[in-house]
Amino acid sequence: MITSADEALLRRAIAVAAHAVTLGDAPYGSLLAAPDGTVLIEAHNTVRRDDDITAHPELKLARWAARELTPDAASRTTLYTSCQPCGMCAGALVRSGLGRVVFAISTEQLVELNPQSGAWPTIPHDGPALLPEARAPLDAYYLS
């Protein structure tokens, strides 16, 4: 359930996205908030500026949280973001241990606004293969 406090922080994430546009960056912004609503960090998309396909704000904040917060502290935070995290970012958010995500625009809504946003090709996957060989370094790491 989204509260009025969530809406206020979500509006701030949208403002970060709007500011990104004035800097020539893509219109995506995010912030990470503590349980009391204190903003811990905010970021916007810098994919073009940094020539880095991973420079999404959600991924930047997930990395920051994993590096700077204890697992307990991370689990009590909320990420507010102007657009629903993509698959890459969603995976990073799970791995970083954040507690919750609140977004303004869904992926489906984004694709309606900008059809090119949903034009990602699929990549064929083959496997699994060579289990005994692939398992050796895993066993050496996890079973030592």
Automatic annotation (TrEMBL):
Boundaries of every CMP/dCMP-type deaminase domain copy: 4-121
Domain of life from the UniProt record: Bacteria
Signal peptide: none
SUPFAM superfamilies, alphabetized: Cytidine deaminase-like
PROSITE patterns: CYT_DCMP_DEAMINASES_2 (PS51747)
Protein name: Nucleoside deaminase
